[in-house]
Structure prediction request, 891 residues.
Amino acid sequence: MQIHRLDAHAVLHSLHSSEDGLSDEEATHRLREFGPNSVRRPRHAPWILRLARHFTHFFALILWLAAALAFVAENREPGQGMLVLGWAIIGVILINGLFSWWQEHRTQRTLAALQRLLPHEVKVRRRGVLRTLQATQLVPGDILYLEAGDDIPADCRLIEAYGVRVNNATITGESLPRTRNALAASEPALIEASNVLLAGTSLVAGEARAVVFATGMHTEFGRIAHLTQITSRGATPLQQEIARLSRWIAVLSLALGVAFFFIGQSLGLSFWQNLLFAIGIIAANVPEGLLPTLTLALAMGAQRMARRNALIRHLPSVETLGSTTVICTDKTGTLTSNRMQVHRLFLDGQMTEADVPAPSQTSAATRRFFEIAAHCHNLKPAGAHNEGGWLGDPLEVALAGLAHAQRPDMPILARVDEVPFDSERRRMSTLHTAQDGFVLYTKGALEALLPLCSQVHWNGGMEPLTVARRAQLLAREESLAHDGLRVIALAYRVLPGIGGGAAALEERLVLVGLAGLQDPPRPEVPAAIARCRTAGIRVIMVTGDHPRTALAIAGQVGLVCGNTPLIITGEQLLHLSDTELQLALDSTEILFARIGADQKRRIVVALKHKNEVVAVTGDGVNDAPALRESHIGIAMGVSGTDVAREAADMVLLDDNFASIVAAIEEGRAVFDNIRKFLTYILTHNVAELVPYLAFALLKVPLPLTVIQILAIDLGTDTLPALALGAEKPDARVMQRPPRRLNERLVDFSLIGRAYLFLGIIEAVAAMSVFMLVLHAGGWHYGEALAATHPLYLQATTACLSTIIVMQVVNVWLCRSERATVLASGLFSNPFLYWGIGAELALILLIDYTNWGNALFGTAPIPAAWWLLMLPFAAGMLLLEELRKALRRRRD
Prediction:
């Protein structure tokens, strides 16, 4: 028989325990058998293996191969710069891998600071003695003592309960506390039983004695944590694109290298000359600076998101956010402020806003309302002189907070007695001393108070509570409830003396009025949801709360605009097939309420089957499976559990939905910026490749050496590329729909622009200046020049410098695929000036210092040759602006 269906004595008997608890010997035996009371953390690979992954992915393997070939070439043909090339490539791999690993490690340290674990110490009765033990030492059969404010350390069955209310939000997603008692329950599911406290939840009111029946991974908390851990996650869209790009670059580079190796053979070059030539081709096509630039761009995006309260756990998730098409958001704490607030009052027959003074605010009913709210509760001060507010039921906190805010000088009457709240009575009463005797304050459900009331405050006076007045009160309650408010009735009675039990006290009450409370929406959420709508992102509420509450909040934040949204409850979802669920998700406006952990994950799977990129928010352990299943899991940093944060890709430091939208904006900007610096980086690949083609096919001296290629890829172009990665989001980025799931990071338009347009212009400029310098120096076609010949050194220096000058112009052109240079703003990205300044400083050092000449095979060039490069740079600017103008006209 299920444990919640048994009475307290039978429960103790079934667990072989007693009122005095377990003996130390039995507890030790059970600890060995059942294990410690802790949730097993997901197994992480050793740090050395996680570090190794950053050096062994596909793109890194390409670079390792290039470095190995460079060392082989250096061994056979010393003095060609291959040794420097090999070590430089290895340096790129190491720096990038260490940076990526450190970024991941730093995020994990930040998360560790955020983690909130189950309580460390608990009060346990063993062998008749009350002790304080570590929560990990709990075993089934232990007797726990709990009070308001305690977190529940294990699944346990109540055997004594006094005014117990529990917050189950971390397990069920419900925002309102639930009453619990020690009686045998009739609910079919243990998780819903009225006499069970679940690990990971918290006691908000009352005192209790309970017997533990499940610990560690055997609890409901542990079961959901296990479901999270066995859910695998595939590669992010960006990881898939980088893998695709790596394969494309590898195939292209190796194919060209092999092809030109055989071309060299046919031209009569030696084997090692051909190998050196092939390595140059590969080096020209593999953008060695792409990997560190990409990693740094993602890291900068993550830092910008952190400044907007979104902590990224995995760098590729930065871009995934920008691809999001659907956000499945919970309600409590994300759309709402996660605190109850008195929203409306019905006093003296009038409905008024709680925070707007009305004529009735000075009436006797108003005065009595604040008296009842200030006295009728079981709250505890959170700080000295109540400076930290109260601890306890959020509803009572809201009522007491309003009372003390409106009547800060109200005298607090001494409490004499209390009739506690329970699920049967649906009310609580407190008895206090007054000047002329005693006063009883009562609050609870209107249906529970109406039969006990004989009078009501109405229109400034006190009237008999007639049948008509009762009907009016019930109608007002229904109106408040329809708006998603939780309705509480307040009443009182002045007593000359006390005697008898609760029944004698709680009669002939005077009804003061009604209070409508809710967890109010965050003020910035409606604007954030409107931005999602403009950006083509669907927002679907998935909550454990009541459908009526969910619908009311959805209407207030603009999530629902029509009159007939589709609302699917957990019970209805149980009867829907996967096909029916996918069809239901086509609805324009849809809400899910009373949803369990497995069901939330099922909704995510259905959306993924519809080719949506899904972001999911969550704070409780019940949300963790869905967080893990989604493309981008978003956990709450303030109210979230450690299990939820462990499963997520991003942690909201302020638990605010608006921060998600800000992070999506940054994610879209990251995707755009990656395309910008990819265009910038791939452009100079053509200018690096064409010199090798000219050398092989046109019988001219090699215009650009391998070490000079490296100077561009890992030196001069790095900071400008990073500056492009730091571009701010375009003003229209949230006015366009999400990128399609099949939209490529590197598509034909990018390849065509980089390779077939900008790259060709740059290559023509570099080769033209190279040939002009050669001819100016008296070179004749077919004449061989030694690698150390002064004319050859100056010509290659001019070729290298021309590429740099063209890239200075190119960095401005790459800021937008279609807008003019001026439209992006000349001073909107100060990093560009730093990047260009560093690029020009580096090329001047390479050209005009002895160590630069020795390392890169360059020689100083006269100022006139720099002027020779400027017409080509201006031509590139004009041609690209013309192309953009034609594109804008076409669009």
